[in-house]
Amino acid sequence: MDALIGVGLYTPAEAGRLLQVPPPKIVRWMRGHNIGNKQYAPLWKPEIELGDERIFLGFRDLMEVRVANAFIKAGLSAIRVRAAIELAQEIIGQDHPLSTNRFRTDGREIFLQVIETDETGEQREKLLNLFRRQYEFKGIIDPILRTVDFDDDGQPMLWWPRGRQGQIVVDPARAFGQPIDSSSSVPTAILAAAARIEGVKGAAHAYEVSEASVVRSIEFEEQVGQRLAA
Which residue(s) pair with 170 in the sheet? Predict the structure, then answer.
């Protein structure tokens, strides 16, 4: 379990609840599947392997699913997404390229930000066109990037599922990546469960957090539950 610290750990069901993506679809993307005599490879290799046949996601997988799902919902086929992932992996040398902040859009085309070094040793930023005027991606990528904090290398560190103003954060370095109240670091599921038994004031007192933290947690847990049910 020590190897999972800072990585995050999610079952497909947990990931599906947070991302509003059906768990069977996540399993297909990460395990691959067969239709008739045709075999479809996984979209990418999972970040976590525990030595059995079960699928688990790390935080990077979670962020990768967000972008892949956005592309597919916009009309791109899973085959095209797989091709884009493989191309981006080759270009930037990242196993989970969709989860980085290297993607850009001008409203009609998708670009991958790459850094090239010329013969003089000078580095130049270049935008590589991955998809050519076949789909409308306006507003797809930027909202996704705005809710994620990236490190200096463009790797995702934190996800704010309700935006930063919502004060709920998913941090792989805390609570194994489960959603937490950002001001107290207590998992939202724990605060919401405590409030159902002891009320908002009782839960706030028991965990030494503000009542606002408890209310935020209740609202978040209800929100993801309602979306999944829908």
Answer: 159
> What is d(CA 201, CA 180) in angstroms, rounded to the nearest whole number?
18
pTM: 0.79
**Quick one: DSSP state of residue 132?**
-
183-205 pLDDT, tens digit per residue, is 999 999 999 999 999 999 999 99
More confident residue, 178 or 36: 178
Cβ atoms 175, 5 nearer than 8 A: no
Q: What is the rounded distance in angstroms from the CA atom of residue 165 to the CA atom of residue 182?
A: 10
Residue written as token pair 């959603």 = 179
Q: Give the 3-state secondary structure of residue 157.
A: strand
Side chain identity at 127, as an amino acid letter? Answer: L
CB 57 within 8 A of CB 65: yes
pLDDT score recorded for residue 15: 95
Tokens of 73: 């919902």
Find, among 187, 176, 178, 189, the residue nearest to 48 by Cα. 176
Cβ(65)–Cβ(44) below 8 Å: no
pLDDT in tens, 31-71: 888 887 888 888 888 888 877 778 999 999 999 999 888 88
